[in-house]
Amino acid sequence: MTLKGPSLEFALPEELEAHEPPEARGLSRDGVRLMVSYRQGDRLAHARFRDLPEFLREGDVLVVNTSGTLPAALPAFREDGSELRLHLSTRLPGGVWTVELRRLEDGATKPYGGGQAGETLRLPGGASVTLLARHRMEGAGKAGSRLWVASFSFPEPYAPDPLPYLLEHGKPIRYGYVGQEWPLEFYQTVYATEMGSAEMPSAGRAFTPEVLTRLLSQGVLVVPLLLHTGVASLESHEPPYEEFYRVPPVTAQAVSQAKAEGRRVVAVGTTVVRALETVADPLGRVHPGEGWTRLLVTPERGVRAVDGILTGWHEPKATHLMMLEAIAGRGHLEAAYQAALEQRYLWHEFGDLHLILP
Q1: Cis peptide, bond prior to residue 248, ω within 30 of zero
Q2: How far is Cα 266 from Cα 220, in angstroms, rounded to an integer?
Q3: Beta bridge partners of residue 134, listed in sequence order
Q4: Which of 98-112, 227-241, 244-258 shows the highest mean pLDDT?
Q5: pLDDT-derived band at 143, boundaries 50, 70, 90
Q6: Which tens digit of pLDDT belongs to each residue from 250-307?
Q7: Which of 15, 176, 249, 257 could staple 288 via S-S, CB 3.0–4.6 A?
């Protein structure tokens, strides 16, 4: 493994990619492995996720993202009959969406650079999608053209709400390292309340009612927010696109009070960090709010609202690693990832987890 440059660079062996949910490997949701890394002294501990309550304490605030996962992948057909995969990313104001076109290759999908503004593609069940314009994002460079802004036409009885249509015709977004399709429930957290994410906020997948009950019984405060995730980009690692968030007053107050009293705030996933940091002022006070965030958390910016994070293991050069470096520091992150590779932790949404604490 090499660790160099502005972000971590390392070779991820294929055998360390989680190819199926833990349930298919004979484990319960909370049976995945958990590395706990302490920034102070770079101390590492190895456990199972069901042991999480042993590493948190009374007064800690655990912030979760209650966004549910959409079945956001659809087959799409061009006028010449060729088949693509359409990944819905984000529902924008005005009822349009950002979407990604992908081509089929060897049972997986790859980025597809084609398509034309004004082109209409046929979808299952009599629906269609029209590509309006390339989606542009400041700072994304050429990668900004990966997504399209598109409008949908859904037949009755689906229109105008796309959710019933997606539940009938869509499937969860799946990348090549996951060898087969899995039902939508495998992509949901136990505390999801509002569907809207293109891909699962996977840091929270291992939670079970039993783990949550143990945390609450020992005085850990669990509070919600919402951030609907867009599509990831495993190929180009560009900055994340704008995403809708909602931080309710109860969560803003709990986090701000914990910060003022010196108690720990632990985010469940990079999505939670992005939402909290969007509404945190320079003094670390978190304010309620909702809207669209384009925030990119980097080591140069730092973090204001969170002290720790529960997260998955991220791909080499992924922009999420910059966020983790902002929380943990470069040296600590290198030590943790080196240990994860040596101890054969599993990557991706069905893999193992990493808890970073002060």
Answers
A1: no
A2: 10
A3: 148
A4: 244-258
A5: very low
A6: 999 999 999 999 999 999 999 999 999 999 999 999 999 999 999 999 999 999 999 9
A7: 249
Inter-residue contact 94 to 85 (CB < 8 Å): no
Helix (H), strand (E) at residue 122:
strand 120-122
Q: Which residue type occupies 105? A: E
CATH number of 73-169: 2.40.10
Angle at 102 between CA 68 and CA 352, to 5 degrees: 45
What is the pairing mode between strands 97-105 and 108-111?
A: antiparallel
Instruction: Fold for 14-69+183-357, please state it.
Output: QueA-like (3.40.1780)
b/e 297-310 (16+ beta carbons within 10 angstroms → b): bebeeebbbbbbbb
Q: Cα(122)–Cα(126) distance, rounded to whole angstroms?
A: 7
User: Which residues have CB under 8 Å from 142's CB, separation 6+?
Assistant: none
Please give the Cα distance from 120 to 122 (Å, whole number).
7
Cα–Cα distance list, 331 to 38, 48, 102, 153, 226 (Å) = 12, 24, 37, 50, 31
Q: Are 338 and 313 within 8 A, CB to CB?
A: no
The residue extents of the domains of the chain are 14-69+183-357, 73-169
Domains 14-69+183-357 and 73-169 share a fold: no
Residue 330 phi, psi dihedral angles, 5° rounding = -65, -50
Amino acid code (one letter) for 322: M
pLDDT average, residue stretch 201-230: 97
